[in-house]
Amino acid sequence: MGRSASRKPIKLRYGLVSITGNFRKNNEDSAFVDPDGRFFIVADGMGGQAAGEKASAMAVEMIPEALNAELDFKRSGKDTVSMLLDKAVAEANAEIMAAGALDPEQNQMGTTVVFLVAAGGLLHIGGVGDSRVYRLRDGRLKQLTTDHSLVQALVEAGTIKPEEAATHRYKNVLYRYLGSKEGGQGACVKSFESKRGDRFLLCSDGVTDGLDDDPLRDLLAAGDDPQAIAEVVVKAAQEGGSKDNITCMIVDVI
């Protein structure tokens, strides 16, 4: 279980933009890029005042520390990677809950998190909350993560139609996030082989609040430079009426 078959290392490049946006006083989003290009994380904090900022900052500090300490990026098999990612997320969740319990002003703090990890010759994605990972491959855009939101649960139950979700009054209500007792129940990790030319988007819901899938796909397909694409996507989301902080990370397989 612990070791993978020999595969070539995956080479990745990225672009990142994170802005406060038009409607918020501070940016509660956080992002992390591994200096060695092995993993990428986006977190979207919540809780008011500085609580959301603290929660998202804790997530993007603790998860990298755990991965660097425990994960063999060259040889770990997908089951081991998945287990370690679940463990890292659960530990971050416990710390965020504990920090919130210690400070009455931060007792409602929490954060979403999504990640992309290159290990054992595979890519691994997952997360908790409603930040998302998308993949653009051969011109087709696919959402790889599933929102842990009340609206998504209603869609899956057949109570509402998917097209109703975007405007539903509960669209921003999460039933799982870091800082909640459900937040440590696993990161829904998916592992798969990459393909040269794959483009991944890791984003807070500030991106999808201002952009539907079709224009998002067109923007992601419109150039080669991931930094330039990130800048264009954030600008379009802002102009599209996003009412949140906006964080866009583009990761390309090269």
UniProtKB/TrEMBL annotation:
User: What EC number(s) does this enzyme carry?
Assistant: 3.1.3.16
Alphabetically ordered keywords of this record:
Hydrolase
EC class, as a word, reads hydrolase
The protein's matches in Pfam families, at most eight in alphabetical order, are given as:
PP2C_2
The record's listing under InterPro entries reads: PP2C, PPM-type-like_dom_sf, PPM-type_phosphatase-like_dom
Which GO molecular function annotations are given, in alphabetical order? protein serine/threonine phosphatase activity
Q: Does the keyword Hydrolase apply?
A: yes
* Keyword Amino-acid biosynthesis belongs to the record: no
**Domain PPM-type phosphatase: residue ranges:** 13-253
Q: What is this protein called?
A: Protein phosphatase PrpC
- What is the organism of origin for this protein? Alienimonas chondri
